DNA sequence: CTTGACTCTTTAGTTGCTACAGGGTTTCTA
DNA sequence: TAGAAACCCTGTAGCAACTAAAGAGTCAAG
């Protein structure tokens, strides 16, 4: 198959496939006379594996480790289990952070019940106060507070 | 005060302060004869405001909106409240996503109790299966699953 | 033979910083 | 008063994981 067919088969964007190849997650394929990449079933499976891992928010580095084990079927998989445990820890840590954030934000929101002039808005005034450290600094790799898909979409929609 | 003192006073890195200026979140300041930026109390407060918002995982664009209201004290703050509600929605949406992720990951983890050879690892085999869509695609801007601070730290620690 | 759909490589943009490099300025100390 | 340390300046590049676009080539259908 050609790259577009692989893309359709796996629900991946063409550019992402080429990106994974550059990053060494997918092997370089053979090419047609016209220099088109050609893929087989094995590539589709490997790509599905990667996308499945990504849908679980693993980093490409984490996925690289898992692929090493997939490529070495006789090795002991203990490290796989450990990696998964760690990643579950990353997710759990981020959930805790976000819950604390949510509490803070709701407390902040309560400071302004009905709209008035900005100078007397309880929210703006509270945000201007000094102190109030308590930033999130836990030990995980689940980051940010902002979804990818939707944010991009709204940005993209701005063009024309 | 000079930029380093402002940095210390607010717990911000010097480069971050210059970055905010480039991004238009902080105004361009006057300079000394030697071309050093000089700041006053108002700058410190504005920077505290920004950092406070950032600690609540708002984007710089969200913060820009809030600053517009801070700079226009006579305007009605209804939009501030709406923005906060939306952002709380972002955080809540991401929490839901991550909880679903956590469930999936724990289910996956249960597929391999004791380490064996990779070819028979229930985790690797499940990850290789097709289908299993259900990616996170909710409507928020809280992203990723990987913490910033710690990840960076471990990277930084690698130098020497 | 032309149109259109597809593919190729390379490069730049996204977010919110962080880290240099290669200078200049100020301040402390000997 | 010289020299060094500590600070500041601008400009550029890097991080993660893509996404998009420019400019060119390839291939199938009509
Ligand atoms: Zn992880
Ligand atoms: Zn208000
Ligand atoms: Zn938000
Ligand atoms: Zn296993």
From TrEMBL, chains A, B:
Kindly give the Pfam families that the UniProt entry links to this protein. Answer: MerR_1 (PF13411)
- InterPro entries registered for this protein in UniProt: CadR-PbrR (IPR011791), DNA-bd_dom_put_sf (IPR009061), MerR-type_HTH_dom (IPR000551), MerR_fam (IPR047057)
- Region span, Disordered: 132-160
One GO term in the molecular function aspect is: metal ion binding
Asked whether the UniProt record includes Coiled coil among its keywords, one would answer yes
Q: Which residues form a coiled coil?
A: 91-118
A Gene Ontology annotation in the biological process aspect, one of them, is: positive regulation of DNA-templated transcription
* Keyword line: Coiled coil, DNA-binding
Q: Which domain of life is it from?
A: Bacteria
UniProt biased composition (Basic and acidic residues): 148-160
Gene3D superfamilies cross-referenced by the UniProt entry: 1.10.1660.10
| The UniProt record lists the keyword Mitochondrion | no
**Domain HTH merR-type span(s) in chain numbering:** 1-69
Protein's name in the database:
Zn(II)-responsive regulator of zntA
Whose protein is this, by species? Ralstonia mannitolilytica
């Amino acid at each position: 198959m050609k790259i577009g067919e692989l893309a359709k088969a796996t629900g991946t964007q063409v550019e992402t496939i080429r990106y994974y190849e550059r990053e060494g997650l997918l092997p370089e394929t053979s090419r047609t006379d016209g220099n088109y990449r050609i893929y087989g079933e094995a590539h589709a499976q490997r790509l599905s594996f990667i996308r499945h891992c990504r849908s679980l928010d693993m980093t490409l580095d984490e996925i690289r480790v898992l692929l090493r084990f997939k490529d070495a079927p006789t090795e002991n998989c203990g490290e796989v289990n450990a990696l998964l445990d760690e990643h579950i820890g990353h997710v759990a840590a981020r959930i805790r952070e976000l819950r604390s954030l949510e509490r803070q934000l709701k407390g902040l929101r309560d400071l302004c019940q009905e709209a008035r002039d900005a100078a007397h808005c309880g929210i703006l005034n509270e945000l201007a106060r000094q102190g109030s450290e308590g930033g999130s600094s836990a030990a995980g790799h689940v980051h940010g507070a902002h979804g990818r898909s939707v944010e991009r979409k709204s940005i993209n929609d701005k063009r024309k």
